[in-house]
Amino acid sequence: MPRPQKYAIGQTEPFQISRAKLDNFIKCPRCFVLDRRHRIAPPSGPMFTLNSAVDGLLKKEFDVCRENQTVHPDLAQLGAAFVPLKDDRIEDWQNTRKGVIYHDVESNLILTGAIDDMWITPGSPEVHIIDYKTTSKAEPVTELGTEEYHDAYRRQLDIYNFLLGKNGLEMSTTGYWFYATAMKNFDNFEMKLNFVPSLIAYECQPDWIPEALLRVKAALENPVLVGPSPACGTCNFVSSRIELRAL
């Protein structure tokens, strides 16, 4: 399918948005439309290269478990008996340039997302969506809080659960974050980080996604740009600059 880089009002060809772009819309529709229709993207933050390195190494370890259909030692330590799902599509679905793809006919949007992993309990047909998270704290992360970025983590699992279900998998409503916490309370560094694993369950709630895709489509089609979002840091910064310019 064609993958236009810039949305044109009235276009009939499907328009692709990523999981991250859908989350951007939830945070600020104005910034999303400026980005997707006018190619004015908000400033991006730094690349989390250390987190990416941990993700890549975890994928290699879990791929060995996938091939052998064994439980990862860290999961066994946590008392979990999941094994990675074997599926011919996993390599594409983990690839950020491909990902899991679903064409929502009603909105005519193509939603994509690159997953970290999928686990199953041997003997059960249900698939659990898994997302790796890396952080550094004095204590291991064992639960998520009310911070906005934690809400973004929840939406992330919702979207992955939705996409995989649309691609024919029997998805469990329970997904998991596999957290690797680099501990800060060691006396010596010795050129290595000491990680403690934890597994945090989440009940996925993907029902909001079809309606959100319709709102995305309506915003892209609306010639009138919606006003700034009160909680958007980019919009607040721009508004402040405009106010200062008027002094």
Short structural description:
This protein has 247 residues and is α/β, with parallel strands linked by helices. 38% of the residues lie in helices and 20% in strands. The strands form two sheets. Strands 2-5-6-7-8 form a five-stranded mixed beta sheet, with helices on both faces. The protein has a three-stranded mixed beta sheet with strand order 1-4-3.
Rg calc: 20 Å
Order of helices and strands: EHHHHEHEEEEHEEHH
Strand % is 15-25%
Helix content: 25-40%
- The low-confidence runs, each spanning 5 or more residues with pLDDT under 50, are none
CATH topology: Lambda Exonuclease, Chain A
Tell me, rounded to a whole number, the average pLDDT.
94
- Distance from first to last alpha carbon: 50 Å
**What shape does the CA trace take?**
globular
Number of helices: 8
Structure, described:
The chain is an alpha/beta fold. It has one domain (15-245): Lambda Exonuclease, Chain A (Alpha-Beta Complex). 38% of the residues lie in helices and 20% in strands. It contains 8 helices and 8 strands, in the order E-H-H-H-H-E-H-E-E-E-E-H-E-E-H-H. The protein has helices at 19-27, 29-38, 49-68, 73-77, 90-94, 148-166, 209-221, 233-245, and strands at residues 15-18, 83-84, 100-104, 109-113, 117-120, 127-137, 174-183, 195-203. Strands 2-5-6-7-8 form a 5-stranded mixed beta sheet, sandwiched between helices. A 3-stranded mixed beta sheet has the order 1-4-3. The longest helix is centred in the first third of the chain and has 20 residues, at 49-68. The protein is globular. The protein starts with 14 loop residues before the first strand and ends with a helix.
